[in-house]
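Hi Prof. W.,

I finally got the ATP-dependent Clp protease adapter protein ClpS prediction working! I wasn't sure whether to trim anything, so I left the full sequence exactly as given:
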Amino acid sequence: MSKTRVSPTPETVSESKTEIQPPPMYKVILLNDDYTPMDFVVEVLQLFFRMDLEKATQVMLAVHYEGKGVCGIYTADIAETKVDQVNRYARKHEHPLLCTMEKA
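And this is what came out:
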């Protein structure tokens, strides 16, 4: 008995074209409150978001005057970690500063 090899034809081969989608991105946002000192907000922005003094001050002023400010845009895991770190740090220092995230 001989084995015959059959080459696939275009009709028998289904090409799966899987496009790789980039991961969803999330904005990390600081919300304004009436009690957290501005210098503490700047400290948080420098410590957790690696902003220089000028950029941290700009974001802090956006938080102060507009009610919220975007600290950065990250993948979900990184955004969740930063939100948690900032909220824990604020509570540790007895400030009501609130950090949240929303889909970008």
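The mean pLDDT is 92. Does that look reasonable to you?

Thanks,
D.
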